[in-house]
Amino acid sequence: MSVRPTRSLGALFALTAVSAVLVAGCTSNTAPAPSTSSAAAAAGSTAAAATGSSAAPASGEPVVIGFSAPAADHGWMGAITKAAVAEAAKYPEVELRQAEATNDVNLQISQIETFINDGVDAIVLLPFDGAALTEVATKAMDAGIPVINVDREFTSPLAARATVLGDNYGMGVSAGSYICSQVGDKPDAVIAEVAGIDSLPLTQDRSKGFADALSDCGLSVTNRVAADFTVQGGETATSNLLQAAPKIDALWNHDDDQGVGVLAAIENAGRSELLVVGGAGSKNMMDLIQGGDSVVKATVIYPSTQAADGIKLARLIVQNANLGDLQSAGVPRTIQLFAPVVTAENVAEYLPNAFES
C-alpha cells in the first residue's frame, strides 16, 4: 500500500528531531541546577519535552518524597505506580513514602496533609481529581514543599513546582497521521473511532487531534462511538459500531485497556478487513503488533512513566539539580511527553516500558 506523507506526520517527525523526551525508561539520570520550593519562585521555562541524558551524581543529599496516586483499577494506572516505585529505588538517598492508592478524593487530600505535617522534602501527586486536590497542593507549596503534579492538572499554577503531562491532542494527531500514511490514498476510506469517556477533556483533545490529522489527508471520521476505558465498555461500544459500519478501513481506539474489549468485538463479528491503531501503549497490543498476524498494526504511546519522571524531577529539585542538555537553569515548570507511534518496525524499542492491560 502506498504511503502518503502529510503535514501532520511531518510535523510530528520534526518535533521528534528537535525535542528530546523525558521518559524514565529511555533516558539516563540528569545533571544539576537551581531550584525553588515556593510557588512564586517557580516561574521558569515551559518545555514541550525535555531530556535527562547527561549523568548526574549517583547520589546526593537525602530526599524524602511523598507519593500519592489513584487506585490501580486500570492497567495504565497500575504501571504508573510501579514505575514510580522502581524509579525511587534507583537512588540510595531517596526515601519514598507511598500513600495507599485511592479514588477517594477526601482520603487523598488527607494523605497530602499528612505529608505536609511530616515535613517531606517533595510531593509527587497524580490526583484523582486535579481540581479537588489544587487547594491542598497549594498548601504544600506554601509550606515550602515542592509539588510535582502528574497527568491530571491542578486548576492553579501556584499548586505545583513542576507538572509532567502526556499529550492527549498529540495522541490523536499521531494516530490520525499514521492512518493517513496507510489509507490516505483512498479518498473514500471509512475511518472509525472508539473514544473513551466523552465528557472528559482528555477524550475531547484526543478526538480533536485525530480529526485534525485526518483532515490533512482529506479524510474524516465516518463512524464514532464512545466507551468508558473498560474492557466491557470497549466491547459493547465496538459491537454497536461494527453493526452500523459493514466495512471499515481503519479504526483508532483511544485506550489499550478498553482495546481488549474492542478486539473481542472485532473477533466475534468475524471482521478482518480493517487495520486497528491502539492508544496508550500496552504490552498486549505491542505483542500483537510484533506478531504481525493481528488487525492491530500500531499503538500510540501515552507514557506510563509520568510519575517516574515526577520522582526524578522531585529529586533534582530538592538537590538543586538541573535537567541535562538544557542551556537554561532550573527544572522546567511543565514537561509534556511525546506521543510516538509504535509499529512493527520500532516495537522492540518500546516493549520494555509497556504495561499489561
UniProtKB/TrEMBL annotation:
SUPFAM superfamilies: Periplasmic binding protein-like I (SSF53822). This is Substrate-binding domain-containing protein. It is found in: Cell envelope. Belongs to the bacterial solute-binding protein 2 family. InterPro entries: Peripla_BP_I, SBP_2_dom. GO terms for cellular component: cell envelope. Residues 65-319 form the Periplasmic binding protein domain. Keywords: Signal. GO terms for molecular function: carbohydrate binding.
